[in-house]
Write a structure and sequence with these properties.
The protein is about 60% helix and about 0% strand. The chain is an all-alpha fold. Keywords: Calcium.
């Protein structure tokens, strides 16, 4: 959200993307992601930062393109609760329906680590319910 609480528009997101994209190659590396978040006053420990990056990298190519970055940043602005697990749950909810669908759940399990998530009963949890489960795992 912008300073007035409005959802960011395309030009604002593009500007933020350019700030993060320090080498101007049209993509965001993990290092650029970390620097951009830190410079923006968002301090996340290295393990959770890597988790957010991997979950945001929906094509798993090791970088964030504009679409992936925009999706992450929109989730961040919509899910600013101060709780990293709420943000992780928002990033996992790819279609934005406030439910964790089976496809989203399986993707999260493969990235976060199946040992904890595979034991859960999957039943289309809400993002809030999923965030609560994540808090118990890490």
């Amino acid at each position: 959200m912008g300073a007035n609480g409005a959802i960011l528009d395309q030009s604002q997101l593009t500007h933020i993307f350019r700030v993060f994209d320090q080498n101007d190659d049209g993509q965001i590396s993990l290092a650029e992601f970390q620097t951009g978040l830190t410079d923006g006053g968002i301090n996340v420990d290295a393990e959770k930062l890597q988790l957010l990056f991997k979950l945001s990298d929906t094509d798993s190519n090791g970088i964030l393109d504009k679409g992936e970055f925009f999706k992450f940043f929109m989730n961040y602005t919509l899910c600013q609760t101060g709780d990293i697990w709420d943000l992780v749950a928002c990033v996992i909810d790819l279609n934005g329906d406030n439910k964790i669908q089976e496809k989203e759940y399986k993707r999260a399990a493969s990235i976060i680590g199946a040992e904890g998530l595979s034991k859960l009963q999957f039943n289309k949890m809400t993002r809030e319910q999923f965030a609560a489960v994540l808090r118990t795992l890490k």
